[in-house]
Write a structure and sequence with these properties.
Shape: globular
Number of domains: 2
Number of helices: 7
Strand order of the largest sheet: 3-2-1-7-8
CATH topology of the largest domain: Nucleotidyltransferase, domain 5
Largest sheet: 5 strands, mixed
GO molecular function, one term: ATP binding
Keywords: ATP-binding, Nucleotide-binding
Number of strands: 13
Organism: Ditylenchus dipsaci
Family: Belongs to the heat shock protein 70 family.
Radius of gyration: 21 Å
Helix content: 25-40%
CATH superfamily of the largest domain: ATPase, nucleotide binding domain
Pfam families: HSP70
Distance between the termini: 58 Å
Strand content: 25-35%
Length: about 270
């Protein structure tokens, strides 16, 4: 039996893996954990330079430390009293490895080949870095597919449309916002005609805006600046994300955190 190739959505905030079998795509469930040294948004670092404006902006919001390693960004964490530095490709490879292991456990056989999705506006450097991450994870990346193309395939537009069509794909994700125009020809040929988007307009950015507002609010009320307090920032960010989710279906949300900083409770509406 030939081994199946898997499809991996390597997202900014969440990743998932699927396989085509039994005439359909099956999404394989995986567990989410939250270790103490949690690194996220590696997708916003991969293939970039340390002095990129977007990297400088993101560093201000992250509770983990980003260092300059040969002109490229790397993440520094502390584990068992030792400092360790990881390249963005290494972090992404860990996610890909997890997706690979999840698929292998589900299928019951080894997996070597994979297709990975990336934003349509990813440049050559970012695409190559994603391929490198796959190689580190022990995967043969058959193809890098643009996310809007993958979305169109997932929706079945290649089968539902007759004749040549132009389709607009709207993709608001955890870290990016994409709008792409796809041309779909007879025979299911997809071509990205144009794309526009913002690498910093997604769920994470909503969290960051709420976080920045509440940091200022806490400092105004209690005279404490928590910008350099990773634990307080992490707790406040978690509360911000929960509030954002509540606001998806309600007009207001309450944030209550006991002993946020120096024993001071934080409550706001």
């Amino acid at each position: 039996m030939s081994c199946k190739a898997i499809g991996i959505d390597l997202g900014t905030t969440y990743s998932c893996v699927g396989v085509y079998q039994n005439g359909k795509v099956e999404i394989i469930s995986n567990m989410a954990r939250n270790p103490e040294n949690t690194i996220f948004d590696a997708k916003r670092l991969i293939g970039r330079r340390f002095d990129d404006d977007s990297v400088k902006k993101d560093i201000k919001h992250w509770p983990f430390k980003v260092v300059n390693q040969g002109g490229k960004p790397a993440v520094q964490v502390e584990f068992m009293g030792q400092k360790k530095v990881f390249k963005p490709e290494e972090i992404s490879s860990m996610v890909l490895t997890k997706m690979k292991e999840t698929a292998e456990a589900y299928l019951g056989h080894p997996v070597k080949d994979a297709v990975v999705t990336v934003p349509a506006y990813f440049n050559d450097s970012q695409r190559q870095a994603t391929k490198d991450a796959g190689a580190i994870a022990g995967l043969n990346i058959l193809r890098i597919i643009n996310e809007p193309t993958a979305a169109a395939l997932a929706y079945g537009l290649d089968k539902k449309l007759t004749g040549d069509k132009n389709v607009l794909i709207f993709d608001l994700g955890g870290g990016t916002f994409d709008v792409s125009i796809l041309s779909i020809a007879e025979g299911s040929l997809f071509e990205v005609k144009s794309t526009a988007g913002d690498t910093h307009l997604g769920g994470e950015d909503f969290d960051n805006l709420i976080l920045a507002h509440l940091k200022t609010e806490f400092q105004r009320k209690h005279g404490r600046d928590i910008s350099n307090n990773p634990r307080a920032l992490r707790r406040l960010r978690t509360a911000c994300e929960a509030a954002k989710r509540t606001l998806s279906s309600s007009t207001q949300a309450t944030i209550e955190i006991d002993s946020l900083c120096d024993g001071i409770d934080f409550h706001t509406l």
